[in-house]
Amino acid sequence: HFPRPSSDHPSAPAMYARSLFRSLTAVGPARSLHAGTPQRAKVLVALYDGGQHGRTNPSILGCVENELGLRKFLQSRGHSLVVTKDKDGPNSVFEREITDADVVISQPFWPAYITADRIAKAPKLRLCITAGVGSDHVDLDAACKRGITVAEVTGCNVVSVAEHVVMQILALVRNFIPAYKQVVSGDWNIADIANEAHDLEGKAVGTIGAGRIGYRVLQRLKPFDVSLHYTDYFRLSPQQEQELGLTYHPTPESLAAACDVVTVNCPLHKETENLFNKNLLSKMKRGSYLVNTARGKIIDRDALVEAVKSGHIQGYAGDVWFPQPAPPTHPWRTMPRHAMTPHYSGTTLEAQARYAAGVKDILACFFDKKPFQSDYLIAHEGKVVSQSYKPGNTTGGSYGGTKANDFVKPQGN
């Protein structure tokens, strides 16, 4: 279910890299560039609104005010840059500007969905870059048919997301959110909190996917004296399993039935879309917890609400939704016993510095007709080249190009 390239193996030197420089200089095969690299390119970027913080803090590189630090870089090379927060729907700025764009850049936290409709409207488009990790907002089938390269800044967020996972596991198991709300509201009812508060120690915790992020989650959980489990397309080495005391499961169903806490750390593609459906949720232990910082579409939205309301799932946490931003009517906002946040686990200030530098590296390779870092490539030369992904399209129901009938579009730009 969760394939990834061999270079994703946590034992590889680049997988332990804490700086972008080490990631960029990792040894690996390079791939040639698309032959149609333009001399004067238009780069279209969709970023979130930084507001006052964006205007006063230049380290928030992922907002429209700071433009990933790209303007001087591109203008010095004779290229043009269009940056917008208005990304959703047929009348958006993004929809209008993509028609003559050579490169589009989006991010997981504020994704511009690159649907087949939008690709058809962009005859010059040659490169889609994700400023971060996770390119499921791009219709990979449509991109491959057009020979469009899809790339992301692999490894830029691994520490940031792994820390977020541990934080949210603790928030659920220790019943932190209701306790915090008591303080804010002026209450003091210890029994109400303690009634559903537990130690993490001694619990069985499992990860769906043990790649760059999933493996780091396991490493960070070991000191809690928990029983660690994992499932992945590629089994870890016997040495790694022994070092962390890991139990391997051949299927998600086996892991779900054995664990008190399950964390999802695999990519979204056609094989993982709605992986946690009603059937798989029913196989989890009654009273267990589920944490998802991967992608919202890996979880069946309505089946999860039903499982939480029934008490079968004691609590759910994560920071990923579908579509994004989550509309005000999204049922996860109001379901009981959740610890959801907006999608920010992979966009700490440190992570932003890494993915902004990675975007520049990808662009420089594209314009200079140099090989891309192979780990960055998702689709290239008409095929999906990353084993982390499968051919297909997971943008259905998004705000991009076509109306998302099941959702209400958020107000504003």
List the helices and strands in order.
HEHHEHEHEHEHHHEHEHEHEHEHEEHEE
Number of strands: 14
Overall pLDDT score? 90
Oligomer: single chain
Q: Which percent range fits the helix content?
A: 25-40%
The spatial strand order of the largest sheet comes to 2-1-3-4-5-13-14
Shape from CA axes? globular
Percentage of residues in DSSP E strands: 5-15%
Number of helices: 15
Poorly predicted spans: 1-29, 31-35, 401-413
Structural class: alpha/beta
Biggest beta-sheet profile: 7 strands, mixed
Description of the structure:
With 413 residues, the protein is of the alpha/beta class. The protein is built from 15 helices and 14 strands. Strands 2-1-3-4-5-13-14 form a seven-stranded mixed β-sheet, sandwiched between helices. It has a seven-stranded parallel β-sheet with strand order 8-7-6-9-10-11-12, with helices on both faces. Helix 13 links the parallel strand 9 (261-264) and strand 10 (288-292). Helix 7 (158-173) crosses helix 10. It is globular. 49% of the residues are buried. Residues 1-29, 31-35 and 401-413 have low confidence and may be disordered.
Keywords:
disordered N terminus, 14% strand, alpha/beta, seven-stranded parallel beta sheet, 413 residues, 15 helices
Summarize this structure briefly.
Helix content is 30%, strand content 14%. The protein contains 15 helices and 14 strands.
Write the layout of secondary structure elements.
Layout: H1 20-24, E1 42-46, H2 51-56, H3 71-75, E2 80-84, H4 93-97, E3 103-106, H5 116-120, E4 127-130, H6 140-146, E5 149-152, H7 158-173, H8 176-185, H9 190-194, E6 204-208, H10 212-221, E7 227-231, H11 238-244, E8 246-248, H12 252-258, E9 261-264, H13 278-283, E10 288-292, H14 301-310, E11 313-318, E12 338-340, H15 349-368, E13 377-380, E14 383-384
Parallel strand pairs: 1-2, 1-3, 3-4, 4-5, 6-7, 6-9, 7-8, 9-10, 10-11, 11-12
Antiparallel strand pairs: 5-13, 13-14
